[in-house]
Design a protein that fits this description.
mainly alpha; 27% helix
C-alpha cells in the first residue's frame, strides 16, 4: 500500500480515500480533488456616514459610526 496521495506530482501523506488532506478536502467540498477555487477578496468601500473617509467594516459604516448608528437607532 502506497502512503502517498494518488494525485499526480503530490507526495503528501494519505489522509483518506488514497488522497492527502488538501485533495480530500477539495473532493468533499467540490466533488473533484483537482478543483481550485480562488479565495474571495473583500471589496473596500468608504463609510457611508457624511464626510467620513474611513473604510467601512459593518453594514456600510466604519466601526465608530456603526456603533453610533446601532446605539442611537430606534427600534
Amino acid at each position: 500500500m502506497n502512503n502517498e496521495c494518488t494525485i499526480e506530482n503530490c507526495t503528501k501523506p494519505v489522509k483518506a480515500r488514497e488522497l492527502c488532506s488538501m485533495h480530500h478536502q477539495r473532493l468533499m467540498r467540490h466533488g473533484d480533488p483537482l478543483t481550485i477555487r480562488p479565495r474571495r477578496t473583500k471589496i473596500v468601500t468608504n463609510c457611508k456616514w457624511i464626510n467620513c473617509t474611513k473604510s467601512a467594516s459593518t453594514k456600510g459604516y466604519c466601526s465608530k459610526h456603526y456603533y453610533i448608528h446601532r446605539v442611537t437607532r430606534t427600534v
